[in-house]
Amino acid sequence: QVQLLESGGGLVQAGNSLRLSCGASGRTFSSSVMGWFRQTPGKEREFVAAISWSGGRMHYADSVKGRFTISRDNAKKTFYLQMNSLGPEDTDVYYCAASRRAALDSSHYTPQAYDSWGQGTQVTVSS
Q1: Helix, strand, or coil here: 29?
Q2: pLDDT band at 2 (very low <50, low <70, confident <90, very high)
Q3: How confident is the model at residue 24 (pLDDT cuts 50, 70, 90)?
Q4: FRET label pair with 5: which of 34, 76, 86, 119, CA 20 to 30 Å apart?
Q5: What is the dihedral of CA 33, 38, 39, 43, to 10 degrees?
Q6: β-strand pairing of 18-26 with 68-73
Q7: How many CB atoms lie within 10 A of CB 86?
Q8: For residues 89 and 83, what is the distance between their CA atoms, to the nearest angstrom?
């Protein structure tokens, strides 16, 4: 497994930006698809974005497309979620996740494709 640790959450006003980071250790980071999910208590974990092992392919949920950007730095074993134009609807606990597979496909829209998870970081957007 990969050990993951998120950082960068917090409280911001609507329209502002935040950048989440997720540092990894353990299994080879550079061979894993990495993803971001978010979850409201009592609801299912929702896909936000995913990135292939090389960083060359990214997928986004429709709700964040054009506002959020996922990226990775394999040398630093860290990947990121840049969140711009935040709105109250983006308030959630955000989780980073690692998949055992390197190739990004539609299965990575679901939590079941990932076997390692961070502890979560709270993002709160005030109106």
Answers
A1: helix
A2: confident
A3: very high
A4: 86
A5: -70
A6: unpaired
A7: 22
A8: 13
Q: In terms of C-beta density within 10 A (0-12 exposed, 13-18 middle, 19 or more buried), how is residue 111 classed? A: middle
- 105 — phi, psi (to 5°)? -145, -175
Interatomic CA distance for residues 16 and 39, integer angstroms: 20
Q: Which two tokens stand for residue 99?
A: 């998949």
Q: Residue 57 carries which DSSP code?
A: -
Q: In what order do the strands lie in the sheet with 68-73?
A: 2-7, 18-26, 78-83, 68-73
Could you tell me how many helices (H) and strands (E) the chain has, helices first?
0, 11
Query: 24-53 b/e with 16+ CB inside 10 Å = b?
Result: beeeebeebbbbbbbeeeeeebbbbbbbbb
Name, in order, each residue with C-beta under 8 angstroms of 29's C-beta and a sequence gap of 6 or more: 2, 74, 77, 98
